[in-house]
Amino acid sequence: MTALSERHLSPAHLDQVLKAGVPYLKPIEGDPIAWLFATPAEGHLGLRVHSPGMTDAPTTGLQHVVSRLTHQEVGRCFEVVVTVPGLFRTAYPLLCSIADHVQCDGMRPADALRRALRDFANLLKNEQRFPREREIGLFGELLSLKGLIQSEGVALALAGWRGPSGEEHDFGLPNDDVEVKTTSSERRTHWIESLNQLVPTGDRPLWLVSHQLTQAGAGAGWRLGGLIDQIRGAVGAGSDRDVLEAGLADWGWSDDLADRCETRWTRRAPSTVYAVDARFPTLTPEALEHAGVTLNRLVEVRYRVDLTGLAPVPTPTTPLSAALGPEEN
Contacts from 93-100 at CB under 8 Å and sequence distance 24+? Predict the structure, then answer.
């Protein structure tokens, strides 16, 4: 294969192509077959990759860069298209990066697109902070996700993962709803973020999984970035991976945060599961209304519960046991 610097048009050659104002198609050497194309009549500059096995094109989340599947003489192709001529020169390195990830690194086109977009976004991103409370919360939720993947399978676990999307409960399993709470305090105390967070949905039973973490010694436990990598390895590529990455993004995670989340976490005490029923300590709209509280005067409610010493469910079902997460690194 030619050197990377010889695979793509130089800036001067690209300018000539764009100024010519005529349709252009240039093969990019490698496997699978790929082309750079320009269609001035449509105002498009794009990358085309022969992708006979693809069934859908992932969204880019961008206004002026789109992805799509087309049918060409060679068969089905995946295209990433820049739709604003004024951005062609700026976006050209993005197209080159996607082609290199596919042909030189052996990545699936969808994964190459996602990787290139993430790299370019990180290049322009201001320095991020990931608050410790958020790190701990995501860590606990991913512990439960990993356990469910191992026990119930990737598709079911990811289909049930609701936390990142702002749903009332973190996991919606076939027969149960699960709220995951994680603390690093010496007592099993957890913040409840609203009056509705521990309200069951209809007749579905609601359970609270409690993770109690502490900092681990050298070589023990997980770093958050390492736990994410393990889950990515279990999920693999494809549409399930897209669901996982979207969930991580909704949490505010990006891989450049890994170096800032250096703490290795392990359990301070075994994770436990509680039935959220009449005996569980909660504040709910129904309870406050019965007490005569005018709810429309409560603009925001956030409260903390202490579950230390409260008896957990002694023999949880298999899915609930899985939501407690794996015990070993």
Answer: 94/65, 94/120, 95/36, 95/45, 95/46, 95/47, 96/7, 96/8, 98/47, 98/49, 99/7, 99/8, 99/28, 99/30, 99/34, 99/36, 99/47, 99/49, 100/4, 100/7
Domain residue spans of the chain: 4-124, 133-323
pLDDT per residue over 60-81, tens digit each?
Answer: 989 899 999 999 999 999 999 9
d(CA 129, CA 124): 15
Pairing of strands 265-275, 206-215: antiparallel
The dihedrals phi and psi of 42, each to the nearest 5 degrees, come to: -90, -15
pTM for this entry? 0.66
Residues 35, 27 contacting (CB under 8 angstroms): yes
Quick one: which H or E segment has residue 271?
strand 265-275
Token pair of 238, please?
Answer: 């494809």
Query: Which tokens sit at 42?
Result: 């449509």
Integer Cα distance of 45 and 300 in angstroms: 49
Contact criterion met (CB below 8 Å) for 195 and 284: yes
- CA 89 – CA 326 distance, rounded (Å): 48
141 and 182 Cβ atoms separated by less than 8 Å: yes
